[in-house]
């Protein structure tokens, strides 16, 4: 006799499971777009902070740094819960923030912040910011050299040499390793500038080419005068 109706066939594809995957992918894409958009705001604020620091507008620089910190804090939960979101835009804004914060503290205290003092930057972002800091210090040294401030130029050179010495001991990735060449050129320019200033202080002059700011500061991450165009 009949055993009843035919057994219902299971679907060939797990449609419910695929629907969940689609929802997760859409949520990830939405979070990624938000991270990219807000990271631009944070990066712009960090660049503006550097721009203001070069013009000794400390209060405005502090406000821009605070804005950048707010953006990073806002995005941190999303990039923490979705690991793939940290690389790219968010990592870029952290590196730019590290550069700006390092420069601000160096200007006011003549010291270089540690990684532990730059939460939530990771090691790679900190090293990137540290490399670019040397370019900002180079720009600052040119201004001091124009004013014949040999003491400040010496402080700039001392800092850049100390950073270069540390970086040379690290197994740096290719992108960061490429910055060591311009850093060496920058320190050589500062040494030459300091030597010429010492001769001037003794009432002697030494014929030489004018040291252009761009030549000294080519290591930096673009936080100098050009940043002003992003107002």
Give the helix proportion (percent range).
55-70%
Based on the coordinates given, report the CATH architecture of the domain at 122-205.
Answer: Up-down Bundle
Structural class designation: mainly alpha
Under CATH at level 1, the class of the domain at 122-205 stands as Mainly Alpha
Q: What would you call the shape?
A: elongated
Descriptive report:
It comes from Octactis speculum. InterPro entries: Translin_fam, Translin_sf. It holds the Pfam family Translin. It is elongated, with a radius of gyration of 25 Å. It has 8 helices and no strands. Among the domains are: 25-93; 122-205, Methane Monooxygenase Hydroxylase, Chain G, domain 1, CATH 1.20.58. With 231 residues, the protein is mostly helical. It is 69% helix and 0% strand. Residues 224-231 have low confidence and may be disordered.
Mind sketching the topology for me?
Elements: H1 15-54, H2 58-81, H3 86-109, H4 123-146, H5 150-167, H6 174-177, H7 180-201, H8 213-216
Organism: Octactis speculum
GO molecular function: sequence-specific DNA binding
InterPro entries: Translin_fam, Translin_sf
Can you give keywords for this protein?
231 residues; Methane Monooxygenase Hydroxylase, Chain G, domain 1; 8 helices; 0% strand; mainly alpha; disordered C terminus; elongated
């Amino acid at each position: 006799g009949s055993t009843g109706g035919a057994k219902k066939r299971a679907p060939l594809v797990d449609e419910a499971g695929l629907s969940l995957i689609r929802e997760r992918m859409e949520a990830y894409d939405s979070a990624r777009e938000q991270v990219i958009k807000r990271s631009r705001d944070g990066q712009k604020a960090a660049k503006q902070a550097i721009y203001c620091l070069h013009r000794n507008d400390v209060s405005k620089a502090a406000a821009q740094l605070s804005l950048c910190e707010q953006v990073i804090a806002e995005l941190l939960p999303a990039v923490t819960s979705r690991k793939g979101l940290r690389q790219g835009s968010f990592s870029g804004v952290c590196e730019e923030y590290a550069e700006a914060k390092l420069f601000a503290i160096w200007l006011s205290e003549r010291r270089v912040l540690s990684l532990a003092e730059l939460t939530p930057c990771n090691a790679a972002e900190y090293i990137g910011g540290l490399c670019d800091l040397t370019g900002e210090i180079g720009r600052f040294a040119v201004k001091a050299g124009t004013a014949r401030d040999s003491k400040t130029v010496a402080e700039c050179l001392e800092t850049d040499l100390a950073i270069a010495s540390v970086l040379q001991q690290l197994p740096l990735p290719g992108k960061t390793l490429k910055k060591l060449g311009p850093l060496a050129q920058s320190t050589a320019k500062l040494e030459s500038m300091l030597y010429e200033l010492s001769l001037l202080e003794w009432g002697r002059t030494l014929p030489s080419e004018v040291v252009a700011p761009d030549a000294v500061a080519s290591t930096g991450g673009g936080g100098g005068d050009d940043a002003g165009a992003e107002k």
